[in-house]
Design a protein that fits this description.
Largest sheet: 6 strands, antiparallel, barrel
Structural class: alpha+beta
Shape: globular
Oligomer: single chain
Strand content: 25-35%
Helix content: 25-40%
Number of helices: 19
Amino acid sequence: MTHHLVIVESPAKAKTIKKYLGADFTIMASYGHVRDLLPKEGAVDPSHGFAMRYELIEKNEKHVAAIVSAMKKADALYLATDPDREGEAISWHIYAILKEKKALGKKPVHRVVFHEITKTAIQAAVAHPRAISMDLVNAQQARRALDYLVGFNLSPLLWKKIRYGLSAGRVQSPALRMIVEREEEIEKFVTQEYWDIEALLDAKNQSFSSKLTIYDGNKLEQFSITNEKEAMAAKTKLLKDAKGTLAVVKVEKKQRKRHPAAPFITSTMQQEAARKLGFAVQRTMRLAQQLYEGIELDSGSVGLISYMRTDSVNLAQEALDEIRSLIKERYGKDNLPDEVRTYKTKSKNAQEAHEAIRPTSVQRDPESVKAFLSPEQFKLYDLIWKRTVASQMISATIDTRSIDMAAGNHQFRATGSVVIDPGYMRVYQEGQDDKPEEVDSEHMLPDLAEGDSVIVKEITPNQHFTEPPPRYSEATLIKALEDHGIGRPSTYAAIVSTLQTREYVVLDNKRFKPTDIGRIVNRFLTQYFTRYVDYGFTAQLEDELDDVSRGEKEWVPLLEAFWDPFKHQVDNILETVKRKDVTQELLDEKCPECGKPLSIRLGKRDRFIGCTGYPDCSYTRAVVEEAGAASQEAELIEGRQCPDCGGALKIKHGRYGKFIGCANYPKCKHIESLNKPADTGVECPECKQGNIVKRQSRRGRVFFSCSRYPDCQYAIWNEPIAQSCPKCAWPILTVKKTKRRGTELVCPRKTCGYIKQVEEPNDNST
């Protein structure tokens, strides 16, 4: 009997696939990547054709050994890793190891690719295997080599010129630049006052509002009325001229269509999950991986969604047929377009052979599988299911009406809309970033005609102030990266995560804010490595990697073209730039003690203002004073007193944003976080009265402590779970994640020492 060995990345995926293949197949998991570059200089050798030196990943050595042993007994090998460059590279590494270990001999090796884990897809892939695509492998090797060369050359430079322990990345650095530039926009923004004037009107026993659009014959712009005096004068004149009524001078009626959004690709799924569910990018991808690899239903383990790393909006014909059938059956024929809806992929390099993210069967609606899913899994599956179904429904039909009403040389306008046919909106509506959702409920206006009269009930001037552009959220940062052509489906989560891990940015109310060190690193890179943090250059390099994946470009010449000028620049900066050129920023201000120029300097922790005459002059002060933060009037918190000294509590401005502090500072140094800590739902094991909550230190580091602090001072660094330690019976365990050992369950009691390895699905991040 012929025996086949099938290799996938994760045990969950292996479990799901096993039910679709017969007894002749053994399915094993590699647990993600099996090899990586040596973590030291020389792993990529530019002088020898960019030869790459790999080593086994320590935590997966036992899994590799099991695969080698099983292959020696098998008759054929099927490599069934994920259908992208990353998956292709994993298959190639497994093949190379088996060949090196002499476990293959002349046995056939097949590469099988599928975009959903269903019986039909798996059996079709096994029946029609192909060879390993070296174009895809080389594209991944080129990406890995580029990232390595940038990291191993820029990072030591940052150590010497700024601070030890810093690092830089090829794709993360442009992302950091975006965040810093946005912060600088916000800081330079000058708020302007403006007013608009609203009239509350009545006609045909219906009240409605309108805005002043023409005043004294002049069309109003945003800053036509800039202060209260002008606004009140306008109100007086309008009341006098209107004499209680306005005449309808124009009625305009239109009907428009609103079309459904395309089915999800990786970036849009991450953005919508952030907007609608509040999920961080890493969380979204972890849940999507679980839904893809298989969920245990009554019928066994089933993959619920197609592959979640994709930049294609295509849907397979079989999926389209099933979706259209469901729409007709559930929502009626009237909600089904005559033709299948097609969508255009934004990226010119999108892999059209791939599919958008969709349910493997829309017949499995969210409610039918809810009992088998965690609350988070259900929310994401519900989002994917609704988005997919809505993408193939008819457009929404909306009636809009605008009415212009005049009094002398003044004119008001009222607008309203009515959803005549919700179409796809019966199922799903796309979220929006940084602006209010469109009004989709009825906003009726009375049925008026030219010449009709309306009653003026009230005229109200409204004060407004212009606002700076908002900081990037995870969703808007990913959208900006995608718009610039930076990153690919497998990299967005890693970009976001790396910036936070390196402490170049912190999340403040779910918005990215650069730290002091993040600003300095960005200034160094934009000043001395302008080309390599340029958005266009980074996007072009991504395009060239795509060319390699399609066999249109050779990978070694691509690396050579990058390496030579980059290495020259690194060597030049190493010799010519001094540390003070980077870490000091001269100010147009003299030292109050010695008269020498002051500069913003980098200390062991943060930036500060110091005298350039140091060490002869030791004058220093905090940067926040220079930025004006200290001069901002602190907001008094009513009804609360400092628990330490009884003084007043105020909302203050610090280096890391707003916080609550005692008004008697520096005599009393009591501080509190302004944001309410997130409850983990895990009972405090020490006092058994409060819950463990997630907090953030002043430097932005996350930790967990009792909600009853300071009465109970129990605190831990790692996230707790409500599971008792099997060794010492302590009521909780914690989840600890490291690059070297992966994810572990650890007892927080140092005297215990309990540790258990936890295997997580590979997330294919680069």
